[in-house]
Amino acid sequence: MSHTILQVQELVKRFGGLVATDHCNLEIRTGEIHALIGPNGAGKTTLLAQLCGELAPDSGRILFEGRDITRLPIHKRVSAGIVRSFQITTLLPRLTVRENLALAVQARTGHSFDFLGTVADESDLDEGAEDAARRVGLIDVMEQIVGTLSHGKQRALELGMALACKPRLLLLDEPMAGTDPEESKRMGELIHSLREDHTLILVEHDMDAVFRLADRVSVLVAGAVIASGTPEQIRNDPQVISAYLGDDESAETEAVQ
Ligand SMILES: Nc1ncnc2c1ncn2[C@@H]1O[C@H](COP(=O)(O)OP(=O)(O)OP(=O)(O)O)[C@@H](O)[C@H]1O
């Protein structure tokens, strides 16, 4: 029986007069890939930012494994096991893959950032960096300068940096963005492989990827979840079809642009 890892209860976030998150309720089960979809401006990114602690909600609660984390700062959520990809640091293009990953391990373990010059000598950092690199298929390019990697490999590295923080719940914000079909396929396989030992929330505009990868899908419209279910249930939900997916191919394509 699956149990709930994350619960969002009646979450509200306003930007001035705009209600970006409107009494949002969401339940994420341990071990699932849960996709969050919805039209542009529906509030997906704003919700993710509240889950990782980047934005403070105005009201409502977020429970992680039953514990109220609504007011916990980002670094404490990372320690608790919630990591958003690209959250800890953006890539440092002039450093190597190994150095970038070691910095992500440092962020998790609380090592000081002051001794950049000796990063490569720290065996615990190195081990963590190599584990993450292996996981995302970058072990053969550990010494390569990040700025010289292909876009797809840079995306994989961003994911590797999130993994170096040893998350239990990984928040992925548009991992397929800007990737070509081959890179997108590889990223899909990578995400699928993470499901073994992680719970994932996936915000993604690529509907093919969403319906292929997700165990369950929630649809956000105007800051509220209007439906949650299996990809099959969501595809056939009349409310979702009229509010978002549309009832034919062209409407679907239009809705996700
Ligand atoms: N910092 C901010 N200040 C003011 N308004 C904001 C801010 N961030 C987001 N918004 C507004 O909140 C609403 C939700 O935006 P958000 O980016 O969360 O939607 P989204 O579903 O992620 O959209 P997209 O699919 O286009 O990325 C939008 O109307 C947006 O303009």
Describe this entry's structure for a reader.
GO terms for molecular function: ATP binding; ATP hydrolysis activity. InterPro entries: AAA+_ATPase (IPR003593), ABC_AA/LPS_Transport (IPR051120), ABC_transporter-like_ATP-bd (IPR003439), BCA_ABC_TP_C (IPR032823), P-loop_NTPase (IPR027417). It comes from Parazoarcus communis. Residues 6-247 form the ABC transporter domain. The protein is of the alpha/beta class. It folds into 2 domains: 1-88 and 167-257, P-loop containing nucleotide triphosphate hydrolases (Rossmann fold, 3-Layer(aba) Sandwich), CATH 3.40.50.300; 89-164, no CATH class. Helix content is 38%, strand content 24%. Strands 6-7-8-3-9-10 form a 6-stranded mixed β-sheet, sandwiched between helices. A hairpin with a 2-residue loop joins β4 and β5 (67-68). α3 (97-109) packs across α4 (123-135), α3 runs parallel beside α5 (151-163) and α5 runs parallel beside α6 (181-194). The longest helix is centred in the C-terminal third of the chain and has 14 residues, at 181-194. The protein is globular, with a radius of gyration of 19 Å. Bound molecules: adenosine-5'-triphosphate. Adenosine-5'-triphosphate binds next to β2 and α1.
